[in-house]
Amino acid sequence: MNFIDGSLFVENMQKLVITAAPYGPEWLPSDFPEDIPVSMDAQIQKAVDCYNAGATVLHVHVREEDGKGSKRLSKFNQLLAGIREACPGMILQVGGSISFAPESEGDTAKWLSDDTRHMLAELKPTPDQVTIAINTNQMNVVEQMTAADVAGTSLANPEMTRAYREMTIPAGPEWVEEHIRRLTANGIQTHFQLAGISQLETVERMMRRGVANVPLILTWVAIGGGFEAPNLYNLANFVRACPDGSVLTLETSMRNVLPLNMMAIALGLHVRCGIEDNIWNQRQTGKMTTVEQIEQLVRIAREFGREVANGKEAREIYRIGTFYENADETLARNGFAPNRKPRVEVARHA
Predict the structure, then answer these.
(1) C-alpha–C-alpha distance, residues 72 and 101, integer Å
(2) Which of 11, 67, 144, 243 suits a disulfide with 335, CB 3.0-4.6 Å?
(3) Considering only CA atoms, which of 79, 11, 80, 92 is closest in space to residue 51?
(4) Which segments in the chain show pLDDT lower than 70?
């Protein structure tokens, strides 16, 4: 992205799109009972509350009635339908890390198999987006967490910590290209969750080959543990690598969330918050609900003079429902340089 004169003036920025991640699948309900919804009605109401506070994108996970994270396709369909009815203006973004447990006794459990994750393209009602990781990668989400971050929570249990420490994302090229094809065929936007510039370069190469004819809507996930760390130098390098036609949201974890989001607001980028990313206030004197985090970002954006996008505006910024015909159009619309053309040899005459 190019920051020419006037780039830091709010009149030259897109309105701010706030993504809320309120379902926090890494936490148990006992970790934050005031803000972790368990019943289906409570999970739907949480989406409504986030939208009313100013968030226009909802990062969707779902829980069973016992509070555990659900892996059932039917449960996601139920939540999506409930949110669509209660909050039709919200952009529904399903987290691509979901795996589905068997529907009934005797069925085979499929944990994050390629075929299982492809089922995200078949959700009904259709979500607006599904997130996708690029290139198989370590995802140690607890690497940057401190003892104070997990004190009093289930993640203070060494076995729970180890489970997340050893997590990896399987995202090889064949699966990724097929997944984008299936999402596109069903009118679902691919939202790229990227750990660094090398993954952005892979996305660009796919677009140059014509196998990802989609808008470059992406999140820089700066959580360490196989992803980049949330520091100024990594951020600047990643932003500089993004073409001007891309739409970039920043994501990090725990008490890095607020500082990084303040940078995003100032730079004209977009933000993500919620208990999936952080449960604490900055002094760690108490926990913050997802709605409180959204309200905080709205206040800060207003101090900057930057308006917060409503649902209709967020859809336009995210280009929901937009797909491209070929590589040339994809590159042009996303702000990449065009593909090289073969050199034409000039015949020499004696």
Answers:
(1) 5
(2) 243
(3) 92
(4) 98-113, 345-350
